[in-house]
Amino acid sequence: MSILIYIVTGLIMLFLILVILAPKGYDVSRSIVVDRSKAEVYHHLKSLKNQDNWSPWSKKDPNMKKEFHGEDGTVGSMTAWEGNKEVGSGEQEITALQKNERIESKLRFLKPWKSESDCYFQLHETEDQKTKVTWGFTGQNAFPLSIMMLFMSMDKMVGPDFEEGLQGLKNHLEN
Q1: For the chain, what is the mean pLDDT?
Q2: How far apart are the two ends of the chain, measured CA to CA in Å?
Q3: What is the reported pTM?
Q4: From edge to edge, which strands make up the β-sheet containing 131-140?
Q5: Membrane-crossing residues (predicted)?
Q6: How far, in Å, are 144, 146, 147 from residue 7 at the CA level?
Q7: Residue 70 in contact with residue 171, Cβ under 8 Å?
Protein backbone atom coordinates (compact mmCIF):
# COMPACT_ATOMS: atom_id res chain seq x y z
CA MET A 1 0.00 0.00 0.00
CA SER A 2 2.83 2.44 0.81
CA ILE A 3 4.36 1.90 -2.64
CA LEU A 4 1.07 2.96 -4.19
CA ILE A 5 1.05 6.13 -2.06
CA TYR A 6 4.59 6.96 -3.25
CA ILE A 7 3.63 6.40 -6.89
CA VAL A 8 0.50 8.56 -6.62
CA THR A 9 2.43 11.27 -4.74
CA GLY A 10 5.19 11.15 -7.36
CA LEU A 11 2.70 11.49 -10.19
CA ILE A 12 0.99 14.43 -8.47
CA MET A 13 4.35 16.12 -7.92
CA LEU A 14 5.34 15.55 -11.54
CA PHE A 15 2.02 17.02 -12.69
CA LEU A 16 2.48 20.10 -10.46
CA ILE A 17 6.01 20.62 -11.73
CA LEU A 18 4.77 20.45 -15.34
CA VAL A 19 2.03 23.00 -14.55
CA ILE A 20 4.59 25.36 -13.00
CA LEU A 21 7.09 24.99 -15.86
CA ALA A 22 4.55 25.18 -18.67
CA PRO A 23 4.70 28.35 -20.78
CA LYS A 24 1.77 30.61 -19.91
CA GLY A 25 1.80 32.54 -23.18
CA TYR A 26 3.27 32.83 -26.65
CA ASP A 27 4.50 35.58 -28.93
CA VAL A 28 5.35 34.70 -32.52
CA SER A 29 6.41 37.23 -35.14
CA ARG A 30 8.23 37.49 -38.43
CA SER A 31 9.28 40.48 -40.54
CA ILE A 32 10.02 41.31 -44.16
CA VAL A 33 10.90 44.49 -46.08
CA VAL A 34 8.51 45.44 -48.89
CA ASP A 35 9.48 47.89 -51.63
CA ARG A 36 6.35 50.01 -51.15
CA SER A 37 5.44 53.00 -48.99
CA LYS A 38 3.94 52.55 -45.54
CA ALA A 39 0.68 54.07 -46.78
CA GLU A 40 0.38 51.55 -49.64
CA VAL A 41 1.20 48.59 -47.39
CA TYR A 42 -1.14 49.79 -44.65
CA HIS A 43 -4.02 50.33 -47.08
CA HIS A 44 -3.58 46.79 -48.42
CA LEU A 45 -3.17 45.09 -45.03
CA LYS A 46 -6.14 46.68 -43.30
CA SER A 47 -8.49 44.97 -45.77
CA LEU A 48 -9.41 41.49 -44.58
CA LYS A 49 -10.47 40.63 -48.14
CA ASN A 50 -6.95 41.34 -49.44
CA GLN A 51 -5.47 38.64 -47.22
CA ASP A 52 -6.66 35.96 -49.65
CA ASN A 53 -4.10 37.32 -52.15
CA TRP A 54 -1.15 36.14 -50.04
CA SER A 55 -2.35 34.14 -47.01
CA PRO A 56 -0.67 30.74 -46.66
CA TRP A 57 -3.93 29.35 -45.27
CA SER A 58 -5.83 30.29 -48.42
CA LYS A 59 -3.35 28.12 -50.32
CA LYS A 60 -3.83 25.23 -47.87
CA ASP A 61 -7.56 25.25 -48.58
CA PRO A 62 -8.55 27.03 -51.80
CA ASN A 63 -12.16 25.87 -51.20
CA MET A 64 -12.36 27.47 -47.76
CA LYS A 65 -15.74 29.12 -47.10
CA LYS A 66 -15.45 32.75 -46.02
CA GLU A 67 -17.92 35.37 -44.93
CA PHE A 68 -17.23 39.07 -44.40
CA HIS A 69 -19.13 41.32 -42.02
CA GLY A 70 -18.98 45.09 -41.61
CA GLU A 71 -17.13 47.65 -43.67
CA ASP A 72 -13.86 46.03 -44.73
CA GLY A 73 -10.77 47.79 -43.42
CA THR A 74 -12.47 49.40 -40.42
CA VAL A 75 -12.52 48.58 -36.72
CA GLY A 76 -15.20 45.96 -36.16
CA SER A 77 -15.01 44.44 -39.63
CA MET A 78 -14.77 40.69 -39.47
CA THR A 79 -14.20 37.59 -41.55
CA ALA A 80 -15.29 34.10 -40.59
CA TRP A 81 -13.90 30.98 -42.23
CA GLU A 82 -14.57 27.28 -42.33
CA GLY A 83 -12.03 25.09 -44.01
CA ASN A 84 -10.37 21.73 -44.13
CA LYS A 85 -8.52 20.18 -41.17
CA GLU A 86 -5.37 22.21 -41.95
CA VAL A 87 -7.07 25.60 -41.55
CA GLY A 88 -9.96 24.71 -39.22
CA SER A 89 -12.61 27.32 -38.56
CA GLY A 90 -12.76 30.63 -36.78
CA GLU A 91 -13.05 34.36 -37.19
CA GLN A 92 -10.86 37.44 -37.31
CA GLU A 93 -12.02 40.89 -36.21
CA ILE A 94 -10.14 44.17 -36.64
CA THR A 95 -9.89 45.69 -33.16
CA ALA A 96 -7.60 48.72 -33.67
CA LEU A 97 -6.11 50.75 -36.50
CA GLN A 98 -3.26 53.25 -36.23
CA LYS A 99 -3.07 54.81 -39.66
CA ASN A 100 0.03 53.76 -41.58
CA GLU A 101 1.52 52.25 -38.38
CA ARG A 102 -0.34 49.26 -36.94
CA ILE A 103 -3.31 46.96 -37.50
CA GLU A 104 -4.59 44.83 -34.62
CA SER A 105 -7.13 42.05 -34.72
CA LYS A 106 -8.57 39.31 -32.56
CA LEU A 107 -8.35 35.76 -33.88
CA ARG A 108 -10.92 33.35 -32.49
CA PHE A 109 -10.24 29.76 -33.44
CA LEU A 110 -13.14 27.32 -33.16
CA LYS A 111 -11.64 24.19 -34.74
CA PRO A 112 -9.52 22.14 -34.35
CA TRP A 113 -9.59 23.59 -30.80
CA LYS A 114 -10.98 26.74 -29.27
CA SER A 115 -8.54 29.53 -28.54
CA GLU A 116 -8.05 33.28 -28.91
CA SER A 117 -5.03 35.20 -30.05
CA ASP A 118 -4.19 38.83 -30.68
CA CYS A 119 -2.79 39.39 -34.16
CA TYR A 120 -0.97 42.47 -35.43
CA PHE A 121 0.84 44.04 -38.36
CA GLN A 122 3.41 46.67 -37.39
CA LEU A 123 4.84 48.92 -40.11
CA HIS A 124 8.18 50.76 -40.01
CA GLU A 125 9.62 52.89 -42.78
CA THR A 126 13.21 51.98 -43.64
CA GLU A 127 15.92 54.45 -44.61
CA ASP A 128 15.39 53.75 -48.30
CA GLN A 129 11.62 54.50 -48.18
CA LYS A 130 10.63 50.85 -48.07
CA THR A 131 8.39 49.33 -45.41
CA LYS A 132 9.37 46.75 -42.83
CA VAL A 133 6.26 44.67 -42.06
CA THR A 134 6.16 42.68 -38.84
CA TRP A 135 3.37 40.13 -38.58
CA GLY A 136 2.79 38.56 -35.22
CA PHE A 137 0.40 37.12 -32.75
CA THR A 138 0.30 36.66 -29.02
CA GLY A 139 -1.91 34.79 -26.61
CA GLN A 140 -2.22 32.75 -23.48
CA ASN A 141 -1.82 28.99 -23.21
CA ALA A 142 -4.81 27.66 -21.30
CA PHE A 143 -4.55 24.46 -19.33
CA PRO A 144 -4.03 21.66 -20.52
CA LEU A 145 -2.62 23.16 -23.73
CA SER A 146 0.03 24.90 -21.63
CA ILE A 147 1.50 21.53 -20.62
CA MET A 148 1.48 20.35 -24.24
CA MET A 149 3.47 23.49 -25.15
CA LEU A 150 6.38 22.14 -23.09
CA PHE A 151 6.84 19.65 -25.91
CA MET A 152 5.70 21.77 -28.86
CA SER A 153 6.74 25.20 -30.11
CA MET A 154 4.16 27.71 -31.28
CA ASP A 155 7.01 29.54 -33.02
CA LYS A 156 7.92 26.42 -35.01
CA MET A 157 4.28 25.65 -35.76
CA VAL A 158 3.22 29.11 -36.98
CA GLY A 159 6.48 30.91 -37.82
CA PRO A 160 6.99 29.19 -41.20
CA ASP A 161 3.42 30.11 -42.20
CA PHE A 162 4.11 33.75 -41.31
CA GLU A 163 7.31 33.65 -43.40
CA GLU A 164 5.44 32.18 -46.36
CA GLY A 165 2.64 34.71 -45.99
CA LEU A 166 4.99 37.68 -45.74
CA GLN A 167 6.87 36.53 -48.84
CA GLY A 168 3.52 36.23 -50.62
CA LEU A 169 2.58 39.74 -49.45
CA LYS A 170 5.89 41.11 -50.71
CA ASN A 171 5.49 39.38 -54.10
CA HIS A 172 1.89 40.56 -54.41
CA LEU A 173 2.62 44.20 -53.58
CA GLU A 174 5.82 44.48 -55.58
CA ASN A 175 4.47 42.90 -58.79
Answers
A1: 88
A2: 73
A3: 0.82
A4: 25-34, 131-140, 115-125, 102-111, 89-98, 78-82, 65-69
A5: 6-22
A6: 22, 24, 21
A7: no
